[in-house]
Amino acid sequence: MRLSRYFIPVLKEAPSDAQIVSHQLMLRAGLIRQEAAGIYAWLPLGHRVLRKIEQIVREEQDRAGAVEMLMPTIQLADLWRESGRYEDYGQEMLRIVDRHERDLLYGPTNEEMITEIFRAYCKSYKDVPKLLYHIQWKFRDERRPRFGVMRGREFLMKDAYSFDIDEDAARKAYNRMFVAYLNTFARMGLKSVPMRADTGPIGGDLSHEFIVLAETGESEVFCHQDLVEMGAPGADVDFDGDLQPLVDERTALYAATEEMHEADRFAAEVPEDKRLSARGIEVGHIFYFGTKYSEPMKALVTHPDGKERPVHMGSYGVGVSRLMGAIIEASHDENGIIWPESVAPFGVGIINMRSDDADTSAACDKAYEALTKAGKEPLLDDTGERAGAKFATMDLIGLPYQLVIGPRGLKEGKVELKVRRTGEKLELPLDEAIKRLAEG
Amino acid sequence: MRLSRYFIPVLKEAPSDAQIVSHQLMLRAGLIRQEAAGIYAWLPLGHRVLRKIEQIVREEQDRAGAVEMLMPTIQLADLWRESGRYEDYGQEMLRIVDRHERDLLYGPTNEEMITEIFRAYCKSYKDVPKLLYHIQWKFRDERRPRFGVMRGREFLMKDAYSFDIDEDAARKAYNRMFVAYLNTFARMGLKSVPMRADTGPIGGDLSHEFIVLAETGESEVFCHQDLVEMGAPGADVDFDGDLQPLVDERTALYAATEEMHEADRFAAEVPEDKRLSARGIEVGHIFYFGTKYSEPMKALVTHPDGKERPVHMGSYGVGVSRLMGAIIEASHDENGIIWPESVAPFGVGIINMRSDDADTSAACDKAYEALTKAGKEPLLDDTGERAGAKFATMDLIGLPYQLVIGPRGLKEGKVELKVRRTGEKLELPLDEAIKRLAEG
C-alpha cells in the first residue's frame, strides 16, 4: 500500500480520557475512532490488524475441528425467555422493540440461539458430537465503558459451542478448545496462562480463563513460573488423539486470578522462587455447563437405549477485538506499538526520505514491487512529509521492519534496515535488504 | 471437509412461506435458518458461500483503489439529527435506547458516520480524494420482510463512500465503482446491466442500479440486448486511467428499471430485435450526491484558493447477502442449486458409495487428500446414508463437480465424474479424474 493513497490519521496526542497505553496508542496510531461510548470505528490500519487476529483465531478453530457458521446480531427476546435469562441478564443487555412491538435484543452471547439451532436439526446420538463456532459482533451495555476496545460495548468475539452425549464426551471438546487457545494466543506472540475460573452454581472444575501477561494488565494474577515458560503445543497436535495429558500438564500447577486466588495454597504448592504474581488480561474463557440450557430449552437427543436426554454443552469464547488491546499492552515502547509479525497490519514500512527525488523514488518503487511480490505487504511512505515525522509515524504504527531509502545513502549504494522491536539498524545495499526481508 | 464432521441440515421440503426459489433452496440445502422475521443464521455451508461472495467484492474494491475499514453497527442518533435524516427515515430505522437513556440506532447505512470520520481528520484539498469502504451488517426494519435473504432485515452490505474536491473529481470515483461493479458481478457468474436510477431531488445523471438478469427476478427491466452481452472489462483495467469510455459505452444504450422506463424512448432508441424486456434483481447501487451530507454536517475542505467548501461525496452499495439469493435465482435447476465455481462452498463433492467398504473408502481418502492439496476444497460424503440420498443431497447443494466412487466401478478401475451444471458424466480411472479436477 502507498501511504499517499491510504488513510492513517495519526494524532500527536491521545485524548485525555484514554487511561491505558493500548487505548492511547490505538487512538494515536489511527487504528480506531470512538463513535459513541464504548463503540469504535476501525480505521483502515486497525481493521487490517483485526482481520489478522480474526484469521488466526479462525485457523486454530478449524484445526481443532470446530465448524464455522454465523449467527445474526439481533435475537428474539422469546429465546431468552425460554432459558430464563431474559430477566436475569440485567442492564447489560441492549433491549430493542421493533416496529411491530416485538421484543428483540442485540446478542451479548449466543447460548440460546445455538441451542435453538441444534435442537431444530439434531435429535439422535448419531448427530453428536457437534462443535460449532462463529465470529460475530456482540453488544454489552456496560455501565461505564472504558479502556478502549478492552471494555467496549460493541465488540468482536469468537464463540464456540459444543454438543455431546455426556460429560466424558464433552470433556474431549473442552480439551480441543483448551489446546486450540494455547496455540491461538502463542501465534499472536502472547504468553497465555490458563487459570481455573469460577463455575458458579453448576460447580465442577471445567472452566478456565486464558490470561495474557502484561505489565499493564487489568488485574492481578498468581501462578507457577513454569506455566509461563511452558509454551504452546503447536500445529502438530493431533486433535483426534488424547489431549488430556497436554491439559493435565497445564492444570497441575497453581494458577489463579485475583477472584480465585488462595494465598495459603499458593504458598504451600509453589516453591518460593517459582511464585509469580503479575498483571494479566483475560482474552479467552472456556466453560462446560452440562445441561444448563439444553434442559429448559428441551434440546434432547435419543441415546442408543432409546431414551431422550438433554445434550451436554460447553461454550468457548475469545475476545477478538479485545486481543488487539492485549497485544499492544504486551508489546509496545515509548515510541509506539511493536506488532508481532503475525498480526502486523503491514510487514515492512518503506520510508522514502525524499519523495521529490527521482532516484530515491525509483529505489523505493523497486523495493515496494519486490516486497509486494514476496507477500510481505509493504507500506510505502511516499508522502511529502519531512523525514522526522515519517520516522515518528513509522515507529508509532509499529511495523516489524523499516526500510529507509534516501539520496545520500543511495549514493554510497546503501539503504538502512531497522528492526522495530530491537531498534537494531543495518546499512546494506538495497538488493540485499530486499532479499533479507523477502526471505525473512 | 468430511461430511461426517460437518453440519449440513438438508430438508426434504421447504417451509410453505418460502415463496421464491432461492429462499426455498437456501432453506432446503441447509444454507440458512430463520431466527426471526427477516433475520437469518448462516449455517456452515451458507457461511462459506457468503465469505466467498464477500471476498470477491473486497478484492474488486481493493483493485479499484478503495480502502477498507469497518464502522460499527450501532450509531448515535445525534449523528442523524445533524443530517436531518433521523426523523425522515421512518419506521425502517431500528431505534434503540441504551441504559443511560441515550438514543442509538442500528445503522441502515453509513453516510452520516463516514462523513463524521472524514471531517474529523481531513481538512484540506491535499487530503482528498478519499475512497473508503466497509463490509458490515446493516438493519432495516422492513414492514414485511420476505423472499429470504433478498429482503431481510439484518443483511450484509458493502458500502463505499467517496470524498472529492468537486464534481469532476467525484465522477472519477464514480467511474471506478461503476467498473469495479461490472467486474465484481461477472466474477460471480452473473450478467449485470447498469441502469439509470432516480436521483431524487438532487438531480443529475450520476446514479445507476446494477441489475442481475434472472427469470425469477423481482421486477421488470428493459434494455438493449447488446448491453447484456457486453461483458465486464476484466482485471486488466487501469483504474488510474480514463474510465469514461468504458462507462460511456455502457450508458449510451437504453436500460431502465420499471420505475424509470419510458416506453416511447425504448421504442425509438432500440431496434425491435434488440428490445429486451426481462426480470431483474438489484444487487448494487451507485450514487453521486454532491454536498447533501457535507453541507449540513460541515465536512469542509480548504481549496488551493484558501476558501473552505463542502466536500463532494458519493456512495456505492453492494448487497452482499442478497447476492447469494440472486446467484441462486440465476443458477439452479429442478434438483437444486448450481453454484458458479467462484462462489461454490466446496469445489468438488466426493461421494463414497459404500462407506463400509475399505477399498472404496481408501480410494475416497486418496481423492480427498489429493484434491485438498490441489486447493480444490473437496467435500467428502463419508456418511452411512444410502447412495440415492447422497446423490440427491449433492445435487441440491450444487457443488460444480461430483466424483462418485463405488466398489463396482473400482473393480473395473473406474470412477464417475459428473458436471453439475450440464449433468454430463464421464467414467474414467481415479487418477485421471483427480488430475482433471486438480488442473481444472
TrEMBL record, chains A, B:
SUPFAM superfamilies membership: Class II aaRS ABD-related, Class II aaRS and biotin synthetases
Family annotation (Gene3D superfamilies): Anticodon-binding domain (3.40.50.800), Bira Bifunctional Protein, Domain 2 (3.30.930.10)
Domain (Aminoacyl-transfer RNA synthetases class-II family profile): residue spans on this chain: 38-340
Locations listed in the record: Cytoplasm
Catalytic activity: tRNA(Pro) + L-proline + ATP = L-prolyl-tRNA(Pro) + AMP + diphosphate
Keywords, ordered alphabetically: Aminoacyl-tRNA synthetase, ATP-binding, Cytoplasm, Ligase, Nucleotide-binding, Protein biosynthesis
Annotated EC: 6.1.1.15
Major localization listed first in the record, in broad terms: cytoplasm
GO molecular function, one term: proline-tRNA ligase activity
Cross-referenced InterPro entries: aa-tRNA-synt_IIb, aa-tRNA-synth_II, aa-tRNA-synth_II/BPL/LPL, Anticodon-bd, Anticodon-bd_dom_sf, Pro-tRNA-ligase_IIa, Pro-tRNA-synth_IIa_bac-type, Pro-tRNA_synthetase
Family under the similarity heading: Belongs to the class-II aminoacyl-tRNA synthetase family. ProS type 2 subfamily.
Job description of the protein: Catalyzes the attachment of proline to tRNA(Pro) in a two-step reaction: proline is first activated by ATP to form Pro-AMP and then transferred to the acceptor end of tRNA(Pro).
Assembly mode: Homodimer.
The protein's name: Proline--tRNA ligase
Originating organism: Hyphobacterium lacteum
Gene designation per UniProt: proS
